[in-house]
Specification:
By secondary structure, the chain is an alpha+beta fold. It is built from four helices and eight strands; from the N terminus they run αβαββββαβββα. This is Craniofacial development protein 2.
Length: 181
């Protein structure tokens, strides 16, 4: 949205004014080192949105859902909704399962992490079969955080599902959560 007197900006423009662009260019160039460029992979071009992140050569849809509790039968409802809404990757919070692990149900791969003994909190990431074939690994961090790594082109993708404590939680729990991030 532009104000009446402002010109429209193109997609990917990060500088608001010409002055900021000049200052940024000057400060960037003053830090450059004269000599051969380092070897390795070039940095990814993030301007303009020309490159699309892909999985199995196609784009995919990501969603999130606070299920409040995932009792028996609710997984079937979630899989049905994922199919109906064309969701390939779904982050789940407040799962309330114990333990951690992964399993396959029909054509879906479920990666989850909860508390060891109490049915409290818990997170999961559910992917359909197409994306499941591209999952490189998963990392069950704790009962509030989990991540998966997906093989993609032009680069791999990490999806992180987080269930943050509310303001009703104890101060120590909130501090610990943000330290873990």
């Amino acid at each position: 949205m532009a104000l009446e007197d402002e010109p429209l900006r193109s997609e990917g423009a990060y500088h608001i004014t010409e002055e900021e662009r000049r200052v940024s260019t000057i400060s960037t160039r003053s830090n450059e080192v004269v000599g051969p460029k380092p070897r390795g992979h070039p940095t990814v071009d993030v301007f303009g949105g020309e490159r699309k992140v892909s999985c199995c050569k196609d784009q995919f849809n990501i969603g999130t859902w606070n299920v409040i509790t995932m009792n028996q039968g609710k997984l079937d409802v979630i899989k049905h909704e994922m199919t109906m809404l064309n969701i390939d990757v779904l982050g789940i919070s407040e799962l309330k399962w114990t333990g951690m692990g992964h399993f396959t149900s029909d054509n879906y791969h479920i990666f989850y992490c909860g508390q060891e003994s109490r049915r409290r909190y818990g997170v999961a990431i559910i992917v359909n079969h197409r994306v499941g074939k591209a999952v490189l690994d998963y990392n069950p961090i704790n009962d509030r955080m989990i991540s998966i790594r997906i093989e993609g082109k032009p680069f791999n993708i990490t999806v992180i599902q987080v269930y943050a404590p509310t303001m009703d939680a104890e101060e120590a729990e909130i501090v610990h959560f943000y330290e873990e991030i």
